[in-house]
Amino acid sequence: MSDPLNDGRLNDGPVQPTRKQQLKPFEYLAFAGAAGLFIGLIVFMTVRDVVLALIFGGVGFILTLLLTATLMLAVKPKGRSSADLDKRDGFEA
């Protein structure tokens, strides 16, 4: 019997993620932080209230992070069909 998760490849143990894969969560946090900082600076320069700028910056950070995470869930990995992804996840029909 063939293992549907193995796809005929040798299994030498756990696969180590690449450096790019390891830094991906940091990229999302950095992007959301930059957006929150930008929003906070715009609000601060407009109303000159530090507390209000911190509130808007924090809300901007959280909303940007949620929006980015939601959009990344909707994106299919490059070169992978939905049937291939379903097969890999054990949802084959």
User: From the alpha-carbon coordinates, what is the Rg to the nearest angstrom?
Assistant: 21 Å
- The separation of the N and C termini measures 18 Å
Instruction: Please estimate the helix content.
Output: 55-70%
Query: Which ranges are low-confidence, i.e. pLDDT below 50, for 5 or more consecutive residues?
Result: none
* Shape summary: elongated
* Class based on secondary structure composition and strand pairing: mainly alpha
Number of helices: 3
Q: How would you state the average pLDDT, rounded?
A: 82
Order of helices and strands: HHH
Main sheet makeup: none
Strand content: under 5%
The tally of beta strands, per DSSP, is 0
Tags for this entry?
single chain, 93 residues, mainly alpha, elongated, 66% helix
Question: Would you write up a description of this structure?
Answer:
- The protein has 93 residues and is an all-alpha fold.
- The protein is built from three helices and no strands.
- The protein has helices at residues 19-47, 50-74, 82-88.
- α1 (19-47) packs antiparallel against α2 (50-74).
- The longest helix is centred in the middle third of the chain and has 29 residues, at 19-47.
- The chain is elongated, with a radius of gyration of 21 Å.
- It starts with 18 loop residues before the first helix and ends in a 5-residue tail after the last helix.
- The mean pLDDT is 82.
